[in-house]
# Entry
Amino acid sequence: MKYIPKKIPEGINVTSRHPLLNFAYLLGTVVAVSIFIFVVLGFVAEWLVIRVSPETETQIGDMLVQPALDKKITDDKRIQYIEELLNSLLIPGETTRLPLQVHLINNDVINAAITVGGHVLVHTALLETVKSENELALVLGHELGHFQAHDPLKSLGRSLVFLTVSSILGVGMSQSGGLPKIIPLTSELTNLNYSRIQERAADIYGFNRVVKHYGHGGHSLDFFERLAKGESKLQKVSQYFLTHPLSQDRINDLNAEAAKQGWKMEEEVTPLPQWLHCSNMKPCEQAE
Amino acid sequence: MNNKKEKNVILTTLEGVPGQTIMEHYGLVQGSTIRAKHIGKDIMASFKNIVGGELKGYTELLQESRKEALERMVKQATELGANAVVNIRFATSSVAQGAAELFAYGTAVKVES
Amino acid sequence: MDALVQILFFVVLLILGYFWGRYFEKRHYKSILEREKNTLNIPIVNFGAKQSLIDVQEAALFAGSVVISIDYFKMISAAFRNLVGGRVTVYESLLDRGRREALLRMKEDAIKWGANQILNVRLETATIGGSSGNNSGPGSIEVIAYGTGVK
# Structure
């Protein structure tokens, strides 16, 4: 037999698909499908979770709040003050589906939150930073808004869905190196957006109640204004990655709402009781 | 037109074609392919790991890969003017989880009876 | 913020992988094509066990092997492809290069020795585990080609 040397043409064993186009197509598909699945499952989770009975919610809530209560302050007249302020924000005759319990936590991070089951957590640092009752009322009203919208439960439901989906996907692609970072990342980003929508709604709700209680919205935004001044430029860039909207955006939104509803914003301030800045542990100084 | 040529290519794992003589040969030809199944099938396979049984999705994957690898090898052969590929061997390696790489190679020849 | 840093890191690695990977691949293919042209006159076949070999004085074993690594871009593309399904085109070029390089090295060794044919050639491919603790896919592809050179 004779050997005939001939060159084998290229392109038979290698498909000439441009790698960047290929990558873009794959990335697009994966991201789109992840977002879709996450959104759909999120809706399903929210729908299910709202139908949880108040008793079950109380049980879950009591269990989840335990770790947060280890620096709790008891026997302090500030707790009663906060409870009264919170109740005054409800419309007369309105009750919440669960009784709200106020817990005062000794912590020097400025924060207030509401958890599943109606546990309102207020940090002492918050009490020391607010300069008027109007500000404090808006913060409490915001948390009340979260509770009425079932936000804590919804967040819990979504987290569970997200964890389940992640672990299933983990089963399907346990050997794919850098990939798991992308799918949870996409879900995380979608999750953050939900939180911001919830936050905006809670802002509006709280503001609404504050105006109803005091007759005006004056001085309630002072807290946010002070925060906005402190926020650095870097946060503007990474706004997309924060669960709360930037303070300046919140201020703008609430001012726009006030303008829309015709609420007065320039009225006199309702001062805090003098003893709010002192406690059983710190001797009373002259409050402003 | 090319398809017709490819359909008539004789494939054997013997050193020649029985009943015919090799007139010319063109050297080694190869065909290889790597395919993956989408994640739905991967998840079903994971479940099957628990209950046992044939992994139909993956069987399909290997069959498709085998067909494609052979097709590519035959294409190389016809481009060289061959009408048979002898001494075909297969090889497989796992390049990625859930993906099958199949590689077929043989010698491209021209046979006449 | 954490998410931002992660994304940035990922994108930088992707870009590095893509550009360097393409460069190396182009360079390699150029070398392969040139060497194939130069050695085209010596046949490689994978039969030979059952033929009667006329005009053959000597025979010797020759082997060529090569290990080629993947780049980050390829790894991520393949991981995505694994989810979506279909042909993993990014690995095709890798395997093609590996096999042709291994065959060329075997051929060049045989030609240096003076062979005028290489018979009964066989190829084996193996993958070596991933990099940086990812138990994923191949970190590199190893191909070995071996055959009998006769003169």
Observations:
- The mean pLDDT of chain B is 84.
- Chain B has one domain: 2-112.
- Chain B has three helices and four strands.
- The radius of gyration of chain B is 17 Å.
